[in-house]
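Researcher: Next entry in the queue.
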Amino acid sequence: MDWGMANRMGRVMGRDGRCFFLAMDHGYFLGPTRRLERPSLIVDTVGQHADALFVTRGVARSAVAPSSQIPIILRVSGGSSILGDITNEAITTSVEEAIRLDAAAVGVSVFIGSDNEHATLMNLAEMVNDCERYGIPVMAVTAVGKELEKRDARYLALACRIAAELGARVVKTYWCEEFEKVTESCPVPVVIAGGPVTDSEIEVFRFVHDGIQRGAVGVNLGRNVWQNDHPIAMAKALRAIVHDSMSPEDALEVFESERISESSR
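Model: Structure for this entry, 265 residues:
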């Protein structure tokens, strides 16, 4: 790994090799998502507890202060909305734009098994070709569209391995039962996606803790953080699991303590 690539990877990963990425890119296909209507509020509060922000160039320019020290992972694929076929993506943002925005990495979605499998895999491959030239890591996002039943170890291991084979330096994927089958067959770091909001905080803490125990290097969560009634408390608890190897039960105690402290201010 050359110096530039290693430097950028070091910016988004902690010294322990783990990471807590805050996903805020949802508006690129969902529009004004609940509690993400004003991204700058999330950046200025919850974002301070993340290792990096996963955002589009529009949010980077409008919601992240140029003086911010939080690294940016720039979403560079899109082109469809929730009203249509969300697997129909193209590259929307050039590597030159990523350089202008001082992005530490870029993110590209791939939809394995969809009608747009080939096109999205070529999006990834072409972005890897461009970014490797400048030492910029590419994170592949193994999206499943509206077909949530695809979140099993066999499918996710297939998707992650293909993404890594095409040159992704990091792969974002969903947690599943037997998650070690995904991480052990993927030769690059795997981070856990969140998906729709869960029923309780402890449920999030448990799948994050289990995923890290089974080989993930961290998380890339959004809605389960900033749609929570106490997003800062949620971020601090997740950070404790990722970087301090805290148990789900101890993380819940951190959450409750921060929630009470938050409410008393």
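Model: The CA atoms of residues 21 and 136 lie 17 Å apart.
Researcher: Noted, moving on.
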